[in-house]
Design a protein that fits this description.
single chain, about 190 residues, mainly alpha, Rna Polymerase Sigma Factor, Chain: A, Arc Repressor Mutant, subunit A, 2 domains, two-stranded antiparallel ribbon, 2 strands, globular, transcription
């Protein structure tokens, strides 16, 4: 019995896959705006390479594999020296004064409140670094449960794990995060 050939239907991608791809991306990058951009980039890349689709997987699987590469590229960029230098920080959020600076050119001190904000940002960055250094599955489960507040059942279904396995992963992730933060934040 010959296998039915799978063909692409780009006109249906947004209706059929946008929500799934967005949820997939937001769990991995922890930023909804970045996730939206990555999904758009994935759709665009898929359109450009549609002629290379061989029908060996489902449309969704193929799109997810493209999105995975976009997520990897995103992390490579922000972790490269050039990518870090290009991180922009907002300094005004209101009307005509709206703007941003390259992170490396932000003024060092304006007032005590600014110093607290910067310290909080540094703390957040260190925590993000510690989470990124967790084993991939630990980081994924930790973000989904603790940061994005997914229900236990949703995570278990999405990752095909048991509830007890989820809690073991959460415990191990927290233990490793505590050690990382003690070594890199509190003891500095």
């Amino acid at each position: 019995m010959p296998q039915e050939e799978i063909t692409l239907n780009p006109d249906k991608w947004i209706d059929n896959y946008a929500d799934y791809l967005f949820n997939y991306a937001v769990v991995r990058v922890n930023n909804s705006d970045v996730a939206k951009d990555l999904v758009q980039d994935a759709f665009y890349a898929a359109l450009k390479s549609a002629k290379n689709f061989q029908g060996k997987s489902t449309e969704r699987t193929w799109l997810v594999s493209i999105l995975k590469r976009k997520v990897i590229d995103y992390y490579r960029k922000i972790n490269s020296k050039k990518g870090k230098a290009e991180v922009r920080m907002n300094f005004y959020d209101d009307g005509e004064n709206e703007g941003s600076w390259l992170e490396e050119r932000v003024p060092q001190s304006w007032n005590n409140e600014t110093e607290k904000d910067i310290e909080n940002l540094e703390l957040k960055n260190q925590l993000d670094t510690c989470i990124d250094n967790l084993p991939e599955k630990y980081a994924l489960v930790f973000r989904m449960k603790t940061i994005q507040e997914f229900e236990t059942e949703e995570i278990c279904k999405e990752l095909d794990i048991t509830a007890s396995n989820l809690w073991v992963i959460i415990h191990r992730a927290r233990t490793q995060l505590r050690k990382c933060m003690e070594d890199n934040w509190f003891n500095n």
